[in-house]
Amino acid sequence: MTAFILLPTETIQEVFLWIQSTNVLKYRRLCKKVNDCLLDPHFARHSMIRYLAIPSSSTTIRNVFSDQDKQWFQFPDLYQSVYASLMLQHLTELSWVVSSWKSNPAPIPKAIRLLKHLAVLELSECGIVGYIPSDIWSLTSLKVLILSNCKLSGSLSTDIQNLSQIITWKSRIHCLKYLNLSRNRFADAIPMELGLLPKLKYLALNNNKLDGCIPSSLKNLSKTLSRLYLQHNKLTGSIPIELSEISSLQFLSLARNKLEGLIPGELGHLVRLQSLNLSFNALTGGIPSELGALRNLSFLDVRSNRLSGSIPGELAGLPLRFLNVSTNKLDILEGVNVISACGVDVSGNGGVVFGYLANAWCNCLFLYSFIVELIR
């Protein structure tokens, strides 16, 4: 070994070039000189060019997760950068949904910053852990970001803290339209900077551990946001009236949080709303009659709250296919025609309801699709 390490660096590198780039790094532990040789940028590049199937620059979409792609997540930073520049830098769409790859968890490579042309990035059901690299927000061509059903954790506020500076510094309008970070382990508050994404249409942060209040800055998305999923978190406070300013909203789910206070009557301004789920919170007061203005509403779920009073007759004119007001403190149903909904549940209320409502459940051809839409 002594004689070997006395060889010139170029000679040592020539020897290790005979070993595939996916295996050569295990020899770093031999000695410091070998480690330095293998971590030389020129060696890393030559090694990968020799052994990897480099795609042409015309290849812009990748949706197959190969064994060598797995190595990208395990490589040291230098090799991750070289791999990205050779294999991924021309991509406009990178979509890896790999439910089988959870045995070797790894963070998202910092070299993701080199994929400047990306418009779609999806890493779902993968074994990725840790934080979202801050550089990911500098990919200003990115329109779709899906990092769902992984093991990402930490504070979203920390991960997105430089988003406002990026938009300001680059003086460019961020293109992000679809953001799905659901089913992870994010904690802390929902970042107010999300309101700075002027083209955002879809926002899913459900099934995390987010707490604090719903940021009023989301009202800045009033002309674009159509779907907002915040269910299954630990959000507190009241439902902000500012949500009623998101006139483009069609689907709103705040279920299974710790929200308190009244249901804002101003939600009746969301005339495009098709689905409203406020179930499993601690909301009080009555169901606002203003919701009767939601002429497109077909799904309404307010079960398991502390609502009282009557169900307003204004709901009778809505095209409801699903209505659940169970497990509250409601006493009178004024809008008796509301039972024309395919699925109605008024059970678990302590007051007086019309007796025949116990048999108001009907077969609902559309119920399954609504539930699927709700939990996506």
Description of the structure:
This protein has 376 residues and is α/β, with parallel strands linked by helices. Helices cover 19% and strands 20% of the residues. The protein contains nine helices and 22 strands. It has helices at 2-5, 9-16, 32-38, 41-51, 67-74, 77-88, 156-159, 163-170, 367-375, and strands at residues 61-62, 93-97, 106-107, 120-124, 128-130, 144-146, 151-155, 178-180, 185-189, 202-204, 209-212, 227-229, 234-235, 251-253, 260-262, 275-277, 282-284, 299-301, 308-311, 322-324, 329-333, 343-345. It is elongated.
Task: Quickly list its features.
376 residues, 12-stranded parallel beta sheet, 9 helices, elongated
Calculate Rg over CA atoms: 27 Å
Mean pLDDT score: 86
Secondary structure: helix percent: 10-25%
List segments where confidence is low: pLDDT < 50 over at least 5 consecutive residues.
Answer: 169-173, 354-375
Explain briefly what this protein structure is:
The protein has 376 residues and is an alpha/beta fold. Helix content is 19%, strand content 20%.
Ordered list of secondary-structure elements with their pairings:
Elements: H1 2-5, H2 9-16, H3 32-38, H4 41-51, E1 61-62, H5 67-74, H6 77-88, E2 93-97, E3 106-107, E4 120-124, E5 128-130, E6 144-146, E7 151-155, H7 156-159, H8 163-170, E8 178-180, E9 185-189, E10 202-204, E11 209-212, E12 227-229, E13 234-235, E14 251-253, E15 260-262, E16 275-277, E17 282-284, E18 299-301, E19 308-311, E20 322-324, E21 329-333, E22 343-345, H9 367-375
Parallel strand pairs: 1-2, 2-4, 3-5, 4-6, 5-7, 6-8, 7-9, 8-10, 9-11, 10-12, 11-13, 12-14, 14-16, 15-17, 16-18, 18-20, 19-21, 20-22
